[in-house]
Design brief:
By secondary structure, the protein is an alpha/beta fold. The chain folds into two domains: 2-183 and 233-266 and 308-312, Rossmann fold (3-Layer(aba) Sandwich); 200-230 and 267-303 and 320-333, UDP-galactose 4-epimerase, domain 1 (Alpha-Beta Complex), CATH 3.90.25.10. The protein is 40% helix and 16% strand. The chain is built from eleven helices and 13 strands. It is globular. The two termini are 34 Å apart. The protein binds nicotinamide-adenine-dinucleotide (NAD) and UDP-4-deoxy-4-formamido-beta-L-arabinopyranose (WQD). This is UDP-glucose 4-epimerase.
């Protein structure tokens, strides 16, 4: 297939582009490098031994995007591009609603003006809000999020579902990711956050290489066995493979409309489990202090993965040890990420 990947230079996008290339697909990337470096694509090309056409375009530049899609005959789009920092979205809601919604609407209009009608969207477990029972099932309603970032995911899922309902030629995959971590086993590509990491595992790995003094554990008084929050951590390579499985399923299923799949492992680990796994993988002790809870954090988040297993024939296979070993290889070989 010929696939257009928006946000393909980013963390999950770059791993998915590599997986697509390795499976024989042709790939073009659109990215404005708001949160990524073109170096990620250069490294993907080296790993795959194949070329990727990189379009440095903001998705909101609708004319350029329309021209790009018009005669290209893409079989599908994977739409990763967007802003993703929860805290920043609370501080700058108009930036988040503006960027994520305008980018998506511009992309959908450009697709509508072309022959491409299949799209896989990066949604998030955040759409289950703070009331849904665990494990989360895709049929759960109502979808609600507790911050503007999450609301953009709920809204874009709605837009895509309405679009699919309006015209059965559209095929839409809504992939609800849990907590993507780790890196490609080569150590050549990985997550490269700008500034202070918002997420747990890049923070841990930056402590390990001395970029941060210590990890703050956000609360140890949760109702869990060790008192720290539980999440469904999924290896980014498993996640990448889930996108290919979703594309294959959409290609084989005319009239599918819009369909959501959870991409997680179906199990959860605590903050302290993750720290211990990282310490075993790296041999580096992680200094930590316990701080207060972070506002908005859930006690437990994990997926029911039976729908993805049954319909996509996909299942995550890599465990926490491998996630941390691959994270450590990336971080120790690239302590300052793509910035050298
Ligand atoms: P990322 O920031 O590494 O990648 C996003 C990419 O999109 C970046 O390369 C950025 O430069 C690009 N981009 C942003 N706005 C753009 C625009 N207007 N035009 C063109 N390019 C633009 O993030 P990621 O972790 O790879 O996440 C990818 C997607 O998955 C996002 O939509 C994110 O919300 C979603 N998601 C991520 C997680 C996670 O924990 N990483 C969890 C659930 C969902
Ligand atoms: C994991 C656990 C923290 C940092 C967020 C978004 C979600 C998503 C993925 C985004 C929690 C604890 C963390 C630290 C800590 N999608 N923690 N110290 O909150 O599950 O999900 O990222 O695109 O929408 O909300 O992930 O990695 O921030 O936290 O103790 O310095 O680690 O409390 O239990 P989270 P996270």
């Amino acid at each position: 297939m010929k696939i257009l990947v928006t946000g393909g230079a980013g963390y999950i996008g770059s791993h998915t582009v590599l997986t697509l290339l390795e499976q024989g697909h042709d790939v073009e990337v659109v990215d404005n490098h708001d949160n990524s470096s073109p170096e990620a694509i250069r490294r993907v090309e080296r790993l795959a031994g194949r070329q990727v056409t990189l379009h440095e375009v903001d998705l909101r530049e609708e004319e350029r995007l329309t021209a790009l899609l018009a005669d290209s005959g893409f079989d599908a789009v994977i739409h990763f591009a967007g802003l993703k920092a929860v805290g920043e979205s609370v501080a700058k809601p108009t930036l988040y609603y503006g960027t994520n919604l305008e980018s998506t609407l511009s992309l959908l209009r450009a697709m509508a003006a072309s022959t491409t009608r299949t799209i896989v969207f990066s949604s998030s477990a955040t759409v289950y809000g703070d009331q849904a029972p665990v494990p989360n099932v895709e049929s759960y309603e109502p979808l609600v999020a507790t911050n503007p970032y999450g609301q953009t995911k709920v809204m874009i899922e709605r837009i895509l579902s309405d679009l699919a309902a309006s015209d059965e030629s559209w095929r839409v995959g809504l992939l609800r990711y849990y907590n993507p971590v780790g890196a490609h086993p080569s150590g050549q590509i990985g997550e490269d956050p700008e500034g202070i990491p918002n997420n747990l595992t890049p923070f841990i790995s930056q402590v390990a290489v001395g970029l941060r003094e210590h990890l703050t554990v956000f609360g140890d008084d949760y109702d869990t066995p060790d008192g720290t929050g539980h999440r469904d951590y999924i290896h980014v390579m498993d996640l990448a493979e889930g996108h290919v499985a979703a594309l294959d399923h959409l290609a084989a299923t005319p009239g599918i409309g819009a369909r959501a799949w959870n991409l997680g492992t179906g199990t959860s680990s605590s903050v302290l489990d993750v720290v211990a796994a990282f310490e075993r993988a790296s041999g580096v002790e992680i200094k930590r202090v316990v701080g207060p809870r972070r506002g908005g954090d859930l006690t437990y988040s994990y997926a029911d993965v039976s729908r993805a297993e049954e319909e996509l024939g996909w299942k995550a296979t890599r465990g926490l040890e491998q996630m941390m070993a691959d994270l450590w290889r990336w971080q120790s070989e690239n302590p300052r990420g793509y910035r050298g």
